[in-house]
Amino acid sequence: MPVVDLAGAGTVGAVTGAVTGAAISARDAGLVACTRCTRVWPQGQARCGRCGSRLRSRDLHSMQRVWAWWAAGLLAYVPANLYPMLRTHTLFTTQENTIVGGAVELAAGGSLGVAAVILIASVAIPVGKFGAIAFLAISIHGRQRHSGHRRHRLYEMVEFVGRWSMIDVFVVAILSALVQLGSLVSIRPGPAAVTFALSVVFTMLSAQSFDSRLIFDQTGQEQDAA
Amino acid sequence: MTAIAEVPIETLIACHQCDALHRAAEPPTGGKARCRRCGTVLIAPRRGALVRVLAMAITVAVLMLGATFFPFLGITAAGVTNESSVFDAALAFSAGPMVGLSIAVAALIVFVPLLRMLLLIYVLGPLAAGRAAAPQAAWAFRTAEALRPWSMAEIFLIGVAVALVKVAGLATVVLGPAFWMFVALVIVAVLKDGYMCRWSIWQALERSAR
Ligand SMILES: [Zn+2]
Ligand SMILES: [Zn+2]
């Protein structure tokens, strides 16, 4: 069985053009790879001898965890949008703002850029993430119409972008700590801050549980990216 | 292409994203070796990276300590003033049932980033000095890597920017010394992540363990 060299590595220059076959996975070679430190071991070994991580050639149980965290995240996301994120108390009034309500108010006040940041981080990213994880989780079963590369790119985006949803929770934290001017004006966090934070954490755990190696297993015959 | 049987197992690496098997080879310093199948960067050595990453980790840790204790932001409106530290922001949820969120926020913006830096210092200190790796260094580096997505100092900073826009119409804002320390530490931390080649560190740890 052939082993390919890394793209761009020193010794490879001459080989690059010659490598025409598809890459083989560690599993096909009878090996199990450590996803933490990239070292490979004979199949059947339980722990990585270099970094100590648990070794699993493919984590099929991971899909149950993906869906469990996904559902928990969705469940937390609904109240996060219905309940207020912020409560603003002034001398005579108390105003409550949901995530979307707060963004709309910002936009009405002329801060379109900041309103866009909030809407992207708190609505577009979470909703897109629910869709993307579900799509990826379903796509590893059965025949694939979408290439492994496209789906892998999507997975990378979900992993990279997901954390940024936390912005609005931090905004609420800062405002609640800072805007405490006695009876003049004070801001307190609303219950949505908790459920929204939970939703972000759960979807991060869902994405982390996903074994991205499964994406390429069905498309193993595909030509390499280089 | 080489047949697998001819290649010693310790010179093979598998892409952590797609499991494609490669023969490990270091690219020229400053270059990047990518997975042939999915393009993930697997090896990216930099000159003097160990010492630089160590120095940056120490810098971030010191700035983080400063940023937590000095005043972060202050506002004034109609003669009333309020100051807030980074910790105050984390503790904003400490009333009632939201205590858990306070702990989580404190962890995400202060404790996890700080712990990551301390673990890195512990791992890289002996290696940079050319000595044997510290006991449990592999565990420490693995933990530091696992904590990476949960270290959210840079996201907090964007949150601060948004909050400042919201407050701007309400009161006068004063940026405290901790604010600038936090900006600096986020910049250094991002630079550090770009400098750190995980494969090189694992190799160094493995060599020193033998
Ligand atoms: Zn390992
Ligand atoms: Zn790959």
UniProtKB/TrEMBL annotation, chain B:
Superkingdom of the organism of origin: Bacteria
UniProt protein name: Paraquat-inducible protein A
Keywords from the named record: Membrane, Transmembrane, Transmembrane helix
Organism annotation: Halovulum marinum
Transmembrane segments: 53-78, 98-125, 170-191
